[in-house]
Structure formats: C-alpha cells, structure tokens
Write a structure and sequence with these properties.
With about 450 residues, this protein is of the alpha+beta class. The protein is built from 12 helices and 12 strands. The strands form 4 sheets. It has a 5-stranded antiparallel beta sheet with strand order 4-5-6-7-8.
Amino acid sequence: MSDFSPQSLSQLDRARFSAYRSNLDFYNGTQWKETSKNRQLVFNYARIAVDKVTSYLMQGLNFACDPVEQSGQSKATAQAAEGVLYQVYQQNNLQELDYETELDAAILGDGCYKVTWDVQQKRVRVTAPDINGIYAWWLGDDLSQVWRVASRYTLSRDEVKLLYNRKPDKKASVITELWTPAQFTLFLENEVIEDKPNPCGFIPFVIFPNLRQPKQFWGISDIPSLQESQRELNRALTQLSRILEVSGNPIAVLEGVESAEDIRVQPGAVWTLPPEARAYLLDLLQGGGIRLHVDYIDLVYRCLHDISEAPRAAYGGIERELSGVALEVELQSLLQKVRRKRTIRTSVYARRNQMILSLHKQFGRQDFTGVGHRIIWGQVLPQDRAREAQNEQMLVQSGVHSRRTAMDELGIRDPQAEFEKWLEERRIILEMNTENKARSTRGGSRERAFAAEMESADQS
C-alpha cells in the first residue's frame, strides 16, 4: 500500500474521536460543564436510559438457517450451518459480547465486529475491536461499499514478542492492520512486518452505526440528546439540596445591629439586642416556595423521559394495572426506538453470520451454499406465553405457519432438534397405543369365552 502510512491516521477523524470521549465521560458521570468546590450532585439518568434501551433491544436475539431448496440434502446442510453458528456463538460467548458492543455503540455512536479464523485453535473467532481505533474508506456516495479498513491498537513489548517474534525498544508499540478485499498489511509502528493476500477473501469487519445519520457513514450516540436535560436536572436538584440544607441550619438576620460576634443560632441561645434592633431567622421555605422547585424538577424529569424515549413505565413505574394493548401504547416511544435500532442490527448480525459461514467453508471444508439465514428478535413487551402458543397453534393448523416457524417465533433455540424429539415421542406413543389396543382386543376375547363357559355351566 504505497499510498498509505500509519502516521496519516493520527490526522483523521479527530472530531469523531473527540465526540467519543465526550459521550463516554458524560455516561460515566462527568456532567457538569464547570467544576466547583460547592456541592454538585449528579443523578445519572442518562446512563440508566442508555442501559435500559440496550436491554430492551437485545431481548431474545436469535437466528435460524433455512434451506433454499426443499430437498433432503438442503435441509441437512441448513441444519449443519445452524449448528456451526450456535457453536461459534458459544465458543466466543457472543451473548455477553453482543450486549457489551451494543452498549458501547449506544454510548459512542458506532460499533464494530471482527470475524477471523484462529489458525492455532482452528475455529472462527469473533471479537469487538475498540471503535476508537477503526478507520474506514468507502466508495463515493455508496456508504455500503467499504473498500479499505484500518485497525489500530497498542500491544506491550511482551505481547509483540509473543505474537510476532519481535523485540521492540518501546514498552508499548502501535500495531496497525490494513485490510482490503485482496490484501492484508500489518505494521509495527511504521514498519511493514507482514504483507500478503487477504486470507479471508473479504474485509473481516462489520462496522455499524448506533442510529443512522442521513447521508453519513458514522452514526450518532444516544447521549447528546440527553445532555441538556440531564445537566438541568442535576442543577435543579443541587439547588434544592442547598436550600434544604440552609433551611435545616437557618441564617440569623439582624437589623439595626452594628456587631454580631456573640450571636449564635443554637438551642437555648439568648440574644441581647440594642433598642430598636430586630432579629429573625431567614425561612427559605415560607410561602410554598419549595413546591415551585419540586414542580420544576418534575417537569425536567418528564422532559428527560420524553427525550430518551424511555417512559416511566419502562422502569416498572406503572401505578395502575394496564392491559397488553394499553401497555404497548404507554411504551410506544420506546418500541419505536428499539425498532429503529433493530432495523440496522438485523443486517449487521446477518452479515456477521455470513462471514462465519464463509470462513468455516474456507477453512473448515464444509460448504453451506444454498443456505439462507435470518435474524429473529424477541418480543420487547412481556408476553402471555399461553396466548402466544395458542396463536401459533392456530397458524400451524390453518397452514399459515410450519411447526418450525412457530417454534422460531416462540423462541425455541434449536427448532430442528425439537421437531425431531417430537417425532420420536410421537412414534413411541403410536407404538404404545398400537400395542395396548392389541392387548385390549386379546383380553376381551378371553373374557367373552370365560363368560360363555360360566353361562353354560349354570344352565347344566
């Protein structure tokens, strides 16, 4: 790559990385613009709102592989592909990794997955590189056509020696990976230590935005929209806290007194005042003034919920019993936000699964051509399991759904294995019924013969 230098990366995307740091600091509680020696309270609703939406987003994530052709071989291939995906998910602990990556994307604004083949362990490895070290180049106005990706990270001296058998002078060295569909180049600082054809055959990165900014490759974070209302909530609560503190330790106000050295506000204190002097305690709560502060805090709190699109009901704060439809209306803003994110994530996880199957085909020598895979999302709202099962039963009986699709919708992790268990149980039950029926028939004949003999004996 004669036109690329690792040094040039330090001049790129400075505004993006600055926004990453600012958003992360705000999420971690650094929310006052200016620090002060006085009390500055932080009620970090921004962090709770981000965590809450991410939890709803990742509810019941699942996937399924389907054969393109309805033949025995295609079905077996689809089942094998699904087994490979589940194996990769378990080996890489992707349930935890996916949640962490989604949370990181919600805070910073972007996320990234890397899918490669581990030569030593002979398996697919899925990681989530720090987006602060990811650079991407795309073709013109087509943001989906990424033709080059650079990944930058730091390794210690021992790690460099272990991985690349080099002994750098520095305690820590910067590693830069440069990927194109055809070529892979590895830099140690500014030195090329490896340059070879791309072993994957594709750029093994899936870079995605938290929420899509129109006509922009990089996404937007959930944090900026919450900053103003969060800061105002912190300020209002801090102000109210100071008022209550002063009211609990009242200020003595003296009028017509030149010196107040011996004046103390304490139980049993006796003040000696000159004639025509006046003394009283300053009451900051008189006239219902505290109610104005509380009402304003409630207004800011409501604005924070509206802007975050996470109503109070999402936190379990429903003061009345609601039906399923009423609860859905109550949480409609949250559902819409989750759907916007899932629209983006569906293609992200589908692309990642495609990379996993491609690497397994290339290095595991197992061809998954003719297999389609789809992402299945769990229900955001609590569901009536019995009612949902009844609906799926009606769809299966009417021919709208197959049993496999019904099990997918109900969240069965391995529908094919479950269906095979059902077939085996059905076969055993049918055999038992057939055997019991035969015994019952034979037993009835003996009983009728015995009754006939008894009747004959009585007559004689």
